[in-house]
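Lecture 7, part B: from sequences to assemblies.

Below are the input chains for today's worked example.
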Amino acid sequence: MSAVTFRFPFPVAGRPDVSPDLTPHHVDASLISVMDAAAERGDGAFEAFGVIAGALQATDDHLARLAESCALLELPEPDLDQLATICRRIAARATPGVESWLKLVVSRGGMDRSEPHAWAVLSETADFSDARSTGLAVIAGDRGFPASYVARERWMLFGAKTLSYAMNMASLREAKRRGADDMLWTTSDGFLMEAPQSTLVFRRGTTFCSPDPGIGILHGTTQRAVFRWAKQQGYTTEYGRYTRSDLLGADAAWFTSSVRLATPLISLDGDPLTIDHALTDSINAFLLARRD
Ligand code: PLP
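Predicted structure of the full complex, as structure tokens:
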């Protein structure tokens, strides 16, 4: 198996169970209309779960975030128990011993826009071992609005994991064009945000830090797991508003995400950042060992 997909009705809270048969399809199978809101407008939400040894990772955190995305997008409230069961059944089909991931997609609906529907894609994870040890050269990219804009303009869907990722992909292309591996978004008044597909985490002495999700970023499930681990190890953790000088002065920094896990950062706009290989390996060993 390299990638298979499953289509099913979107389980809505308070409605009867959807009881899907979960027949696997080839990823190239035509399962949705070209007029689907997801394909036409990127109008929907998604989650990407790590799958290790046939088990979903961080299930509750991902599904809670999906419910928040649906609320922000004014989609029906998902039945999280049913979604957990469906996703666990799909994850159990992963090839044993192969790091995998599951993308759960909720679309606003088909041509008549009547009912949201869902699908999931189970794929083998690309080999990120090089990035996890070599690290990423990062450039900063200004999103063009101040931190204060986020609380004022809630309709902008800040914090929702929507399907509209064209700007995220453009950020990665711009980073490559400028000889870097990834981009770190900032507000126009200079506060660090997140990367197009991951959360910023850094260590300052005995404290693990990450930008406050209220600055208009996704609240990363992997970042939350890293904070839980850090506390168990005796570190303190904090969310805050940070600037590039905070990051340049850090003792170690990572981009974290469910699929790539913790990838160390080696530079910001060409200025070197400190890598802590031992700490990176410990964090990734913990992240890979999760079975929840
Ligand atoms: N921020 C963005 C924009 C993302 O797309 C992602 C993951 O895809 C993350 C952060 C990291 O989130 P998580 O750790 O839950 O995968």
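Note for the exam: DSSP finds nine helices and 14 strands in the chain. Keep this in mind when comparing with the next example.
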